[in-house]
Design goal:
The protein has one domain: Extracellular Endonuclease, subunit A (Extracellular Endonuclease, Chain A), CATH 3.40.570.10. Helices cover about 20% and strands about 25% of the residues. It is built from 7 helices and 13 strands. The strands form 4 sheets. Strands 1-2-3-6-11-12-13 form a 7-stranded antiparallel β-sheet, with helices on both faces. The longest helix has 17 residues. The N terminus is likely disordered.
Length: about 325
């Protein structure tokens, strides 16, 4: 009887715990280098709607998922957010972050901290001088580039440590000031307002899940919705810098957000709440010429189409919650 019970519980566990998909990248440099057991898999960090990572993004299998913490944090400090970082280009594929109801009410509490950007580390924990490459591009080449946050510090202004954690170059990409200090910054402000005044407050008290990333594909206006542009030139073509540093400037940046909350059900009320969600998305070319930015708000499914490599299976940014792909809203100005 004991043997039968053991096999029964093993079977149930195997059904409950899903296997890792090929799109799930390593969670950290330490956790995911271990041998994976056939039964258990490390769950994703709690920054993804429905606890599932995006699927189908081009080349993401070569990325490393980094739990973003401060160097001074105690060992057991939970991460502030995560970034999937591409060490071959020294820019992230995306950063995943969220704003809970208790955090939303505190947005705007703290000002931008005066801290230095932290360099990424190699496999042996040594710093790679990526910031020196940024300085050379900006100061020597005279490029109007900036260190463009993926997870922006302003949205994390409910907590000073959360803000400081964003100042790592594993959370940044070369972004032209035309975009970063212009329409892109304006849209980040609209996201903050939406989290503070709509998603995280009142009876909704939702959690806002956010993804911000880079793309090798650009966009151009189309008939009613934007069209993927694979011919737009790189905004800044230099990629090789002294001391063997590579730094690639992406063609475009994008953000997708999904607010998730629960409402009382029609039949069983609060005993059986309904899961609700609404989403938004935006994409912009990364160009010095403002006329070429074409920053566009769109549905999540439209953004997924723009991010999909031609001839490849489609991208799904929110595979853990299908409502994130259905109910789209335009953020208030």
């Amino acid at each position: 009887m004991l043997v039968v019970q053991i096999y029964f519980f093993a079977l149930i566990a195997a059904l409950i715990v899903p296997p890792l998909s090929s799109s799930q990248v390593s969670e950290s440099r330490s956790k995911w280098t271990r041998t994976r057991r056939w039964l258990w898999s490390t769950p994703p960090p709690p920054f993804f709607a429905g606890d599932k990572r995006p699927e189908g993004l081009p080349d993401i299998s070569r990325g490393t998922e980094i739990e973003q913490k401060l160097p001074s944090d105690p060992p057991n400090t939970p991460p502030y957010f995560v970034s999937v970082f591409d060490a071959t280009r020294n820019i992230p594929f995306y950063s995943a972050y969220k704003v809970t109801p208790s955090q939303a009410v505190g947005i705007g509490t703290h000002n931008r901290p005066n801290v230095n950007w932290r360099n990424p580390k190699d496999a042996k924990g040594r710093g790679i001088p990526v910031d020196a490459a940024y300085r050379e591009a900006i100061n020597t080449d005279g490029q109007p580039l900036s260190r463009g946050h993926m997870n922006p510090s302003g949205i994390n202004s409910f907590d000073i440590d959360f803000m400081k954690a964003t100042f790592t170059l594993t959370n940044a990409a070369p972004q032209f000031e035309t975009s970063n200090s212009g329409p892109w910054q304006t849209f980040e402000g609209r996201i903050s307002k939406y989290a503070r005044s709509t998603c995280g407050v009142g009876s909704r008290s939702g959690t806002l899940y956010l993804l911000t990333g880079t793309s090798n594909f650009g966009l151009r206006p189309g008939g009613g919705k934007p069209v993927q542009d694979t011919t737009i030139p790189l905004p800044y073509t230099r990629i090789a810098f002294p001391r063997g540093v590579t730094l690639v400037t992406p063609r475009a940046v994008w953000t997708a957000g999904c607010c998730v909350w629960k409402e009382p059900g029609k039949i069983f009320g609060s005993w059986w709440p309904r899961k609700k969600a609404e989403s938004f998305a935006v994409m912009s070319n990364n160009q010095q010429d403002r006329r070429l930015l074409h920053q566009t708000e769109m549905r999540v499914t439209d953004l997924e189409a723009l991010l999909t490599k031609p001839g490849s299976p489609g991208v799904n940014l929110f595979p853990g919650d299908g409502n994130c792909r259905k109910n789209n809203v335009i953020l208030p100005p």
